[in-house]
Structures are given as structure tokens and as C-alpha cells.
Design a protein that fits this description.
CATH class of one domain: Mainly Alpha
Order of helices and strands: HHHHHHHHH
Helix content: 55-70%
Largest sheet: none
CATH superfamily of one domain: AhpD-like
Distance between the termini: 52 Å
Strand content: under 5%
Radius of gyration: 19 Å
Structural class: mainly alpha
């Protein structure tokens, strides 16, 4: 016979999670043509950017945009691609932990922030120039495509309140 103590009850109450919020709508079902176009954009954007860098870009933009669904997805995909937990954790404070990243990655992260936060005015010339120093022109176009794509996904996921926590790494990979 198992006896429940006050301590057991208190422990259970402190570890109980808040229930999931419902999604506002199933966007892919409600606008399948647009969703299909976004998938095409995603496939094109991912083709010529190294997988770990691609995921770092997606995680950083998703942090800025407060997109929990995309953070869940892309941290899982980054780990599956061999990214370290430490580099993912430090990503929110990458300017203070630059020693975890290459100069090329730092340039991509700075560009990600500048493109994501356009309310600051525009992408500064020095940020673009630094990225151009580390990526040849076609590579830079692909990085910009990756940044634009994740920002679009973030806006869909945040607006429709897609629910994080159920994504399986690689589930949407083509």
C-alpha cells in the first residue's frame, strides 16, 4: 500500500506544468497554397547553407521573434545535426560569448539580427560588409534567404500560436 504524504502532494504541485495553449488555427489546412509555397521557399533557402549555421540562424531569429514553436523545432534539429548544447544555450548572448563561434558564424548572426529587427531602421552597412567579407556573393544571398524564410515562419507560428513541444527532429526535412 502506498501512502501519499503532504510532502509528496507539495512536490507534485510544484512540478505540475501549466496546460498547453491551443493553436488559434491550423494554418497549413486553411491556406494550403501559401503553406506549399512556404515549404518551397524553405527547401530553396536550406540548399546551400551549412546545416549547423542554418539552424543557428533559425534559432537566433526565433529567439528575437519570441517564436516558441520554431525554437523547439530548430534547437532539436540543431542537436540532431551535431550542434552542441553549449553553443545553442549561449546563442541568446552570442555577443558576450563570441569565443563559442567562428567569425563567419558571428557575421551571420549579426546579419540575422539586423534583418530580423528592421524596426531599428535598416541593415547597417558595416553589418552587411562584415557578412560579405565571410561569405562569397552567392553564399551571402543564401544566408539572406535563410534569414527571410525563418522570419516568415516565425510570423506564421506566432500569429497562429503553433504549439511547441511535439516536434520530432527532421520531421519537416525533405
Amino acid at each position: 500500500m502506498t501512502t501519499t504524504t503532504t510532502q509528496d502532494t507539495a512536490q507534485a504541485a510544484t512540478t505540475a506544468y501549466v496546460p498547453e495553449h491551443p493553436a488559434r488555427q491550423a494554418f497549413a489546412e486553411r491556406h494550403p497554397e501559401f503553406y506549399k509555397a512556404m515549404i518551397g521557399l524553405e527547401i530553396a533557402a536550406s540548399k546551400h547553407v551549412e546545416p549547423k549555421l542554418y539552424e543557428l540562424i533559425k534559432i537566433r531569429a526565433s529567439q528575437i521573434n519570441n517564436c516558441a514553436f520554431c525554437l523547439d523545432m530548430h534547437t532539436k534539429d540543431a542537436l540532431a545535426a551535431g550542434e552542441s548544447v553549449q553553443r545553442i544555450v549561449q546563442l541568446a548572448a552570442w555577443r558576450e560569448s563570441k569565443h563559442f563561434y567562428t567569425e563567419r558564424e558571428l557575421a551571420a548572426l549579426a546579419l540575422t539580427e539586423a534583418v530580423t529587427v528592421l524596426t531599428d531602421g535598416f541593415v547597417p552597412d558595416e553589418v552587411y560588409a562584415e557578412a560579405a567579407r565571410h561569405f562569397e556573393e552567392t553564399e551571402l544571398a543564401h544566408v539572406i534567404g535563410a534569414i527571410v524564410t525563418i522570419n516568415s515562419w516565425n510570423r506564421i507560428a506566432v500569429t497562429t500560436r503553433m504549439v511547441p513541444g511535439h516536434y520530432t527532429p527532421g520531421a519537416y526535412k525533405k
